[in-house]
Design goal:
Blueprint lengths: L16 E4 L9 H19 L3 H16 L5 H7 L16 H23 L6 H16 L8 H8 L4 E6 L3 H10 L8 E4 H4 L6 H11 L6 E5 L2 H10 L3 E5 L14 E3 L7 H9 L1
Length: 277
């Protein structure tokens, strides 16, 4: 949990609660991860002339295949830990699944890079280990937000209770928020790996509501994922704002109270209108 920035005036006692998804809502995740993988792969490019983008694509495929062989893959799927996130997480937390992932992470990272290099006929264990070791610190220091994210949070913070509700692993998600300096804006940060289940699980949403001591009808959830955010929150009685940056169509979003193409359109007036209907 992250305390609100003490320099900020607390919101009024009757302030609405706004829950934000993190990945692809406030911060781009997959494009940043892929850029870091490509940058890491350049070491093989300089040593053997392998195209870094092709090696990165091979790494993604091999990592995903190896990830699916894990005996705790079901748990990872339920809390939303992706194969590329596992290439840099330390998997902190309690429970046998996270303990297993901590013990396996080194072999998983090395095996993924070795398998990717094998596709190009490169048998170089030293290089594979170099790549496996290079990616985590690079990814851990490479973060960005969408241009509309920080203005939206700063606009709402004085008048709303704000929390981030995200699937994934605690260390990765918190490092991303801290890396762009917005970890003090939300009152709380809820990460699925700490709870043992993630969105769209009603249990995870219930945990969030219980911890914040707020009723579902007094909340608005803002997110990009149709399944995890919009359907998941709506099923629990939470009003939703679908962030549809790409303008895609999806019939399931009929349950959303509102749709925006940018977070610039999310303000206190919209939040209050949604909660009054």
């Amino acid at each position: 949990m992250t305390a609100r920035d003490p320099r900020r005036r607390p919101p009024p006692f009757d302030a609405p609660t706004v829950l934000f998804d993190l990945d692809e809502t406030l911060m781009p995740e997959e494009p940043v991860a892929m850029r870091c993988i490509v940058d890491t792969a350049r070491a093989a490019s300089s040593s053997y002339g392998v195209d870094a983008s092709e090696l990165a694509a091979a790494l993604r495929q091999e990592a995903r295949a190896l990830w699916h062989t894990s005996p705790v893959h079901g748990f990872c799927n339920s809390v939303g830990i992706s194969s590329w996130e596992a290439l840099w997480s330390e998997f902190p937390g309690e429970g046998p699944e996270l303990a297993y992932l901590r013990s396996w992470r080194g072999a998983y990272r090395l095996g993924s890079w070795q398998a990717a290099l094998d596709r190009f006929g490169l048998q170089d264990p030293t290089l594979a280990q170099q790549l496996a070791d290079a990616f985590p610190p690079l990814r851990a220091q490479t973060h960005e937000t969408f241009a509309d994210a920080v203005p939206c949070l700063e606009r709402l913070a004085p008048e709303c209770r704000i929390a981030v509700v995200t699937n994934g692993v605690r260390d990765n998600q918190r490092r991303k928020l801290a890396g762009v300096g917005i970890d003090a804006l939300p009152e709380r940060i809820f990460v699925s790996s700490d709870f043992g289940a993630g969105k769209p699980s009603p249990a995870f949403f219930g945990h969030v509501l219980h911890t914040l001591r707020v009723a579902a009808h007094a909340c608005v959830f803002v997110g990009d994922s149709v399944t995890n955010d919009i359907v998941g929150a709506s099923t629990c009685g939470i009003a939703t704002i679908w962030v549809n940056r790409d303008g895609r169509a999806d019939h399931r979003t009929a349950v959303a109270r509102h749709e925006v193409g940018t977070l610039h359109d999310v303000d206190l007036g919209l939040i209050r209108r949604l909660l009054s209907t």
